[in-house]
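Predict structure. Input: Proteasome subunit beta, 204 residues.
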Amino acid sequence: MDIVLGIRTKDSVIIATSKAFTRGISILKDSDDKTRTLNDYNVLAFTGESGDTTQFAEYIQANIQLFNMRENTEMNSKAIASFIRQELAKSIRSRKPFQVQTILGGMNKGKEPFLSMIDYLGTRVDMPYVAHGYAAFYTMSLLDHHYTKDDTLDDGLKLLVQCNDELNKRMPIDFKGLNVKVVDKDGVRAIDFDEFTAKYKASL
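Output follows.
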């Protein structure tokens, strides 16, 4: 029941994940963060089996930080995406594969917005907008219709408001809202999405 989606604009990348942590039909937590900040310009969002997701995300985060310390330089977004894909491809051929779907959002070399979707089979696709879980069923048609490559961060957040409204209308469970993070030339930061939504709807 997790929602994980990403939108790449011309100057940033937006990553949104549902706040609800579910087990079966029960909501165990209403403030879950399904992302990990890997370095100054890259954030990883994930969904899947609860134990696998946490272990895999922390493994990737630790290895990226180790690389930064050893090489005295930060991995760029494309290199991180290749590393994640390689680890998932190795995992699927092992006795204990990770059941994890991931989205990597970042600024490649601190300049170029980058968004990549990598599934548990090690399949990687770099796209302008991506979604995992139930978000894909309900939001892809909206993104197909309204997304343009010239969208700014503000345009992307407005599009995310439309996606959120559609999910609230059609999802069979309460996903407790969205955690939203933005990656731009200033790095990774969290956005108060409820406040942005209220201001945007008040201006209509």
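Residues 29 and 118 are 26 Å apart (CA to CA).
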